[in-house]
Design a protein that fits this description.
- Helix content is 30%, strand content 21%.
- With 531 residues, it is of the alpha+beta class.
- Among the domains are: 127 residues, Dipeptide-binding Protein, Domain 1 (Dipeptide-binding Protein, domain 1); 222 residues, Dipeptide-binding Protein, domain 3 (Roll), CATH 3.10.105.
- Strands 11, 12, 13, 14, 15, 16 and 17 form a 7-stranded mixed beta sheet that branches. Strands 1-10-9-8 form a 4-stranded mixed beta sheet, with helices on one face. A 4-stranded antiparallel beta sheet has the order 4-5-7-6, with helices on one face.
Amino acid sequence: MKRLFKLLLALLLALNVGVPLASAQAPSDLNLTLSSEPPSLDPGVTNDSTSVAILHNVFEGLTNNVDGEVEPGVAESWEISEDGLVYTFHLRDNVVWSNGDPVTAHDFEYSWKRVLNPDTAAQNSTVLHIIQGAEAYNTGEGTADEVGIKAIDDYTLEVTLEHPAPYFIELPGYYTLLPVHQATVEASDAWATEAGDGYVSNGPYILSEWNHNSDLTLSRNDAYWDNANTTIDSAFIQIIESEATQNAEYQAGNLSYLGAPFGSVSLDSVDLYRANGELQANPYSAIYWYKVNTTDEIMQNANIRKALALAINRQELIDNILKSEQIPAMSLVPPVVKGFEEKHDYFQDADFEQARQYLAQGLEELGMSDPSELTINLSINDSEAHSAVAQFIQAGWTTELGINTNIDSTEWQVYLDKVSNLDYQVARLGWIGAYNDATIFLNQYRAVDTGNNDTGWENPDFTRLMNESDQEQDDAQRIQLMKDAEAVMMEDMPVIPLYFYSNDFVTQAGYENLEPNAFGYIQLKHVTLAD
């Protein structure tokens, strides 16, 4: 019956005929959308918000991050040693994989060490470097047995840190640390690319169908330990690239929700949703930034990078293009992050005079005599919103600096490959803070080969300050060291901050908690039906 419904819905969408949700399906069956195909549904290696939107619903970690608080997940309790070095997690004994196998502490030891295994090439492996022996193993200088992740028995996991880190308790809820089923992973390299029995998970939902580049279906996992407190039975997730089409489908009643991470409120629909009282905006630990390839012949010049950064009118971009609750970013760490709540700008917004001075210095250093000799290639992934932002910035750079800008737009997965291979000059990206600490935004720039650096930039002063912050026991001083590191980065400008996100969304009537948390994802297990 569900397959028949999907077929009829697909035909109706093709004919542009709207079917109101109330008459098309039960309220406990959600209709959602993604803007692109998830690149990988392997939590240990994935690195994008599209995949994470699915992963946080089909897997569950030791803990869950809910509304800024750490709540029990697979672990029902934990203790921290007096010296802050040893974390002992006690797992529930009634948690099973979707194939019926028990979930044990050994699964977490395997999964976390797999992330650290150099052969896995996990881009987020550095998040585990706080664990004893983890960095050495990850860099090929140590062994897995020397890593401080030990299954004491089936339901006890002991984690030993290199030094105390109060934020560590938030990490087990991070998507990179979600557990994977060892036998499934080792049976096939393609395990994370298909749905069904071959995709074994442990979360409140299972990936029951995946029609590539078309749709995915999440179905309630009846074997989930907390299934009795889950309301939503299924989520049918269509892949709709066009933001205009996404919004038309929502307005026709064909989508239960629209907004990150499931699609986006289109720029030309913001005023409509605001006028009718539907538009909501939640705080979001995320930044929209332009990364710069500092190995490029032109972009290796810091003065050129700083000229581009200062020649952007962020407030005008927000007011006239985005039309929402974003905050101009003249720093890297969002103001919702602990210790960074106070405004700490490193330059002025729209400082065109200073930008032109930097440009003149940069052109002289490059042997150019006129701004018109300089052409910048600005890369984005296919998106109406990203295109609108890029065109605004292109116009500003032309008007205020007199330089030329080409906009290059490519499909998401191709785009990610280009950025990771430094096949660009300036590239649009965003970053979501998956836990409440500045390290999630800064760690990726400790070294050129750090996962997600994607700029070719490193600075010994930045690395030193971040290393010192790791060792600092006083929390206020630790935060100050990270601010000092951020200042070093802003002086070099390998990344151009544009704005701190707000999470704009709209939801059909009848649902509660169908909204993104501060980390940008929705846990469908918490969604309920309104009375």
